[in-house]
Amino acid sequence: MTALASQRSAAYANFAAAFAFPDAEALASIHSGYLVDFFHRLLAGSHGQLAAEMDWRALAGERMDLDSLQEEFTRLFEVGPAGPPCPLLESHYRGAELANLEELVRYYDFFGLSLPDDRQVRPDHLSTQLEFLHFLAFHEALSGDDPNAAAALSRAQRDFIDRHTGAWIPLLGRALEAQDASPFFSELTRLLEHFLMAEMQRHGEQVEPT
């Protein structure tokens, strides 16, 4: 594996875990400093300016216990009088739900991935999209000796971020701001937004094999 692609693959996996319903293990990764240390090291090595701009204290989840973390997650992402105010679903922010879901499924199918027959696992859910980017970066790392394969996987990540994840995460950030979300979830979303934009730029600047 190439080191950078391997780290980026791990970054998407850590983002997916951080946006899942929090349990005791998730809280431990926050309070132990693991989450902050991982992203700080990653960004300091690849996106130094972004590392300097983040509020790392907010990402350390100060003064948040498990009950308050779960309550805030539920309030923001899971329940509300007319549904959650900030659902982790692309179609909520961008509309055209059927067309959007069909395009996402085509992306997954192209790379040999299929979703389980479970209506709770949606193609447009943030966790699904982050796990897909994790998959692409992981295979990019494995293809280090094949520049054409690496370039194809890099293009796929750039296009997926541009057309999907990177296009709606800024809208999620605005929704969280309107709900006066906790610093942890606000800063986690800001970190993801800027990481995706930096990644799209990096993929776009890569010299592709001829």
Write the layout of secondary structure elements.
Layout: H1 3-18, H2 24-31, H3 34-46, H4 48-53, H5 56-59, H6 66-78, H7 90-94, H8 97-110, H9 126-142, H10 147-178, H11 183-205
Helix pairs in contact: 1-3, 1-9, 9-10, 10-11
Can you offer a commentary on this structure?
The protein is mainly alpha-helical. It has a single domain (3-205), classed as TorD-like. The chain has helices at 3-18, 24-31, 34-46, 48-53, 56-59, 66-78, 90-94, 97-110, 126-142, 147-178, 183-205. Helix 1 (3-18) packs antiparallel against helix 3, helix 9 packs antiparallel against helix 10 and helix 10 runs antiparallel to helix 11. The protein is globular, with a radius of gyration of 17 Å.
CATH superfamily: TorD-like
Following the backbone from N to C, one meets helices and strands in this order, namely: HHHHHHHHHHH
> In total, how many beta strands?
0
Unreliable runs, pLDDT <50, ≥5 residues? none
CATH class: Mainly Alpha
Structural class: mainly alpha
Fill in the CATH topology.
TorD-like
Assembly level? single chain
Helix proportion range: over 70%
The total domain count is: 1
Q: What's the alpha carbon Rg, rounded to whole Å?
A: 17 Å
From the N-terminal CA to the C-terminal CA, the straight-line distance is: 22 Å
Q: Mind summarizing the main beta sheet?
A: none
Shape: globular
How many individual helices? 11
Mean pLDDT: 89
Query: What share of the residues does DSSP label as strand, in percent?
Result: under 5%
User: What is the second-level CATH architecture?
Assistant: Orthogonal Bundle
